[in-house]
Amino acid sequence: MAADHNPNPLNAPAARMPAVPPVGQPREDRTGLGILIMCAVAVIFAFQDGLSRLLGGEYPPVLVVMLRFWFFALFVVVLVARQPGGLRRAVRSKHPWLQIFRGVLLVAEVVVMVEAFVRLGLVETHAIFTASPLLVAALSGPILGEKVGWRRWTAILIGLCGILIVLKPGQAVFQPAAILPLIAALMFAIYGLATRYVSRDDPSMVSFFWTGISGAVAITVVGIWQWEWLAPVDWVWMLALCLTAVAGHYLLIRAYELAEASALQPFAYTQLVWASVIGVIFFGDVVKPNVVVGAAVVVAAGLFTLWRERQKAAPRRSSPASRPPAS
């Protein structure tokens, strides 16, 4: 849900579920504080993913995501109601069907990710999902008509080679479930590109509102049929899951209010580190050498594409037409 024409924060892995856009242009350059907040967001979202894996292993992932989105929808309504124009403004979208598509796609992506957490663990899932920014760059040309130069195409191909290193498709130990986070990364990339498109006409909070509400409605239609009461202790974990989601998204808003997305996105990759630590300590995940090497290749390629986007945006920001009139 990118704000207006700002770089899209959704390309960052830490911003996966459901990412919150900046409310507007950064009011002042407080990049250092924004980076610290983004690092905190990465830690919070890593714990959120750990809780998702814990609950997803005991209950249907669709049920877990449904309860999570109910809480998130409530958070969206409260947050949007406090913005100028309130809910009356939030419901007025110039792309209602595309907004609904975004919400449905995001909630489906989250279900796939929770299933991947349960089947693969946090380490391998996050290692593969880090390809999402590369997929955004690759698809931005055919979908949005953006120009992608040979340097970024080279980085994209190198990053995909990193994914192959993680997957090891030619070996007998290859798990078909390893495709799940790659599918989720593709879904999230399409979601991010759709967000860029609607942001041309819809303010960020309009997109935020439609994502939360349409996602909650869509998952309820599917998840309500798998309803079962959680054990008392699991309601505590579910509350913790919902609270970490709200805290993470609120801090994400603050981070993008303080600094540009291009400066913050590289630090979103720290979620991979924290998720790996949580996976090893609490779930007994094993950090395999091929996963470390492959993830390093993917992250390096992703950082290069982010750097290239920032380099290409620099001349536009510094051009006379983009500067405010002299006082």
Write a compact overview of the structure shown.
The protein has helices at 31-56, 61-81, 86-90, 96-120, 122-129, 132-144, 150-167, 179-198, 204-223, 232-258, 261-268, 270-283, 289-318. The protein has 327 residues and is an all-alpha fold.
Describe this structure in words.
The chain is mostly helical and 327 residues long. The chain is 72% helix and 0% strand. The protein has 13 helices and no strands. The protein is globular.
Key structural traits:
mainly alpha; 0% strand; globular; disordered C terminus
The arrangement of helices and strands along the chain is HHHHHHHHHHHHH
Tell me the radius of gyration: 19 Å
Envelope shape: globular
How many β strands by DSSP? 0
Largest sheet: none
Distance between the termini: 34 Å
Q: Tell me what portion of residues adopts beta-strand conformation.
A: under 5%
Rounded mean pLDDT is: 84
The amount of helix comes to over 70%
Structural class: mainly alpha
Number of helices: 13
Which residues form runs of ≥5 with pLDDT under 50? 1-15, 23-27, 320-327
List the helices and strands and how they pair.
Blueprint: H1 31-56, H2 61-81, H3 86-90, H4 96-120, H5 122-129, H6 132-144, H7 150-167, H8 179-198, H9 204-223, H10 232-258, H11 261-268, H12 270-283, H13 289-318
